[in-house]
Amino acid sequence: MLNFLAKRLLSTLPVLFIVSLLVFLMLRLTPGDPAAVLAGDAASTEQIALIRTSLGLDRSIPEQYIIWAGHLLGGDLGQSYYYKTAVTTLIGQRLEPTVSLALITITLAVLIAVPLGVMAAWRFGGWLDKALMGFSVLGFSVPVFVSAYLLIWLVSLKLGILPVQGYKRIADGVGPWLYHLTLPAITLSLVYIALIARVTRASVLETLGEDYIRTARAKGLPEVNVLMRHALANAAVPIATVIGIGIALLIGGVVVTESVYAIPGLGRLTVDAVLARDFPTIQGVILLFSFIYVMVNLLVDLSYVFFDPRIRY
Amino acid sequence: MAATPDFEALSVESATVHVQLSAWQRVRRNMSVRIGGTVMLLLVLVALLAPWLGTVDPSLFDPASRDLLPGKSGEITTLEGEQIKHRFLMGSDSFGRDIYSRVIYGTQVSLIVGVSTAVVALAFGIVLGLLAGFLRWLDGPLMRVMDGVMAIPAILIAIALVAMWRGSLTTVVIAIAIPEIPRVVRLVRSLVLTIREEPYVEAAISLGTPTWKIMLRHVLPNTVAPLVVQGTFICAAGILTEAALSFLGVGLPPDIPTWGNVMAEGRAQFNEYPHNIFFPGIFLAVTVLAVNILGDGLRDTLDPKMAKRG
Predict the structure, then answer these.
(1) Domain for residue A78, yes or no?
(2) Least CB-CB distance to B277: which of A137, A149, A255?
């Protein structure tokens, strides 16, 4: 197991290396002087010269990459010219809202999607199954910002139940924090529910055809136990996988959702950075999100051992 | 009436022979393809006939006709400075532009972006996938790069690229297509690896057919069905991402009428004029839904293996 863990950890290194290379090259392939681009539109000639020497932009591309990657490994993502602070500090300030939103969304999605998927598979071809399949196509097709405004209009403006936008830190109390995040989390979870429910349904449907299910039923086990202990438990690996893959979808959704609901998180930071053409910040956020994506999928891989005892690394 | 034996049914001519339906026949009989295809056809017509559907130039504005509710009549100034009567079917925005015209012309942009994204992603994906499947030395490095691209969330790649290149139709299409390429490469590569084990490819190799000819004549035609299916889903993703970029203000310039831009402009006044967001939103959702349903139908009929997988 430890051996596998080490191997699997090592296998993420090439991916992370490629990601860093792509993010590095993105800026170098931009027409124009990267130093001028990094310094921003309002920089003086001296500032640009300073950036050029500090990043070694007067040297060859491989040398530049080594210098840049060296900074990166030391936890230095550079300076944001727009906010005039270190990018790492900036990310640290914006982390809480995004992590809160993502965690609530995942919890909500899993709690709703998995039972829905199991029930749809259980009553395969029934009204719930058909409704769920219809909903999942809809969930993939209605963009986050359209469903967001639909929910705002219905829940906030017409019913007046939840706030239209804004965010309260968890330090100000769990109540207000949850109150402000409920609607964004529901919005963001829709597509995620569609994805997880669909895979849960397909996966449980497959296990329900197995002999051990018939045995379990034949020995008089309550249907709930058959579904949860036998069908769902054996269907867990694909479900865990899709939750991991869905993180990419979630990150994309976070960027849009935070913008609609005016949540001061990393997604909002990304959009603001792009509008200000603040490249160090854009690079930093992309690196962070990709790192999270790779790490979550590493965890998902490791969780297979827990879900399926047959898998021994 | 007495039950007379149905001689007709017993005759040799009427014995049901199960004819294997051709792929095209299966596609045409599929309900999802019919529904999705019909809606898409209508949208293509709307895009082509935009100037004759009671629209005005989508960039025309009139200060006197600002913030009109749907169905209200008002005036709009043409480029020649002439005031014409116009009925604002979907209302007008805060510049006094006709939202109906902007939404109808937005159909053109969305369809062009969706189809071009699919074409660009497929073109690069096919070439890279064929190379990875046939050239052993290239396979490893190329697939690692693809893994790297896939590790970066698609919308972030698109946002960053558009930010660097500045928004235009070409840059937006390429920026949206790039994160879709790895999935095509993986698909083509896996197809190539399967197909090259087929007897007819072995036969071609043993006859001394050059590699490029085997790729084009024997392998590529067998990848068409799964690629059409994949292309449909990329088209849907492309339309969605373009709308998201425009909505965030980092896509096509605001003067181009796209659904995302119309929605972005409607944000500030959403409380009073929610229809500014809902009309383009409905068009966007229906279009993506139609493409997805069409894709599902094509997958079920053209690519049964893929349909089983999920």
Answers:
(1) no
(2) A149
Specify whether A55 is located in the same domain as A120. Answer: no
In whole angstroms, what is the distance from residue A270 CA to residue B158 CA?
A: 12
Q: Does residue A50 belong to any structural domain of this protein?
A: yes
Q: How many structural domains does chain A have?
A: 2
Asked, for residue A174, whether it belongs to a domain, the answer is yes
Q: Do A236 and A296 fall within a single domain?
A: yes
Residues A129/A202, Cβ–Cβ less than 8 Å = no
- Verify that A254 and A297 share a domain, yes or no: yes
Q: What's the confidence (pLDDT) of residue B309?
A: 42
Q: Last residue of a domain, which of A16, A40, A73?
A: A73
State which residue of chain B sits closest to A15, comparing Cα positions: B148
Chain A residues whose beta carbon lies within 8 Å of the beta carbon of residue B175? none
Q: What is the pTM of this model?
A: 0.86
Q: Are B167 and B158 in contact (CB under 8 A)?
A: no
Label residue B308 by pLDDT band (50, 70, 90). Answer: very low
Of A140, A146, A274, the CB nearest to B163: A274
Q: Which CATH number goes with the domain that contains A259? A: 1.10.3720.10
> Where do we find the tokens 């010219």?
A81
Question: Does residue A80 fall inside a structural domain?
Answer: no
Using a CB-CB distance cutoff of 8 angstroms, which residues of chain B are in contact with residue A286?
Answer: 152, 156-157, 160
In the predicted model, is pLDDT for residue A121 greater than 60?
yes
Alpha-carbon distance of B251 to B235, in angstroms, equals: 17
Residues A138 and A219 in one domain: yes
Determine contact: A15 vs chain B, CB below 8 A.
yes
pLDDT for res A312:
65
pLDDT in tens, B179-224: 999 999 999 999 888 888 888 888 988 998 888 888 888 888 888 8
Tell me the per-residue pLDDT of B255-293, one tens digit each, with 9 for 90 and over.
888 999 888 888 888 888 888 889 899 999 999 999 999
Segment 254-293 of chain A within 8 Å of chain B by CB:
255-256, 259, 270-271, 274-275, 277, 279, 282, 285-286, 289-290, 293
Choose among A39, A21, A15, A208: nearest CA to A117.
Answer: A208
State how far the Cα of B100 lies from the Cα of A74, in Å rounded to an integer. 54
CA distance A49 to A36: 9
pLDDT of residue B284: 94
Q: A180-199: b or e for each residue (b if 16 or more CB lie within 10 Å)?
A: bbbbbbbbbbbbbbbbbbbb
Range of the domain at A105: 94-307
Mean pLDDT calculated for residue range A123-145: 89
User: How long, in residues, is chain A?
Assistant: 313
Same domain, A59 and A147: no
Q: CA dist A56 to A28, A47, A66, A283, Å?
A: 13, 14, 10, 18
Tell if the CB–CB gap between B270 and A149 is shorter than 8 Å: yes
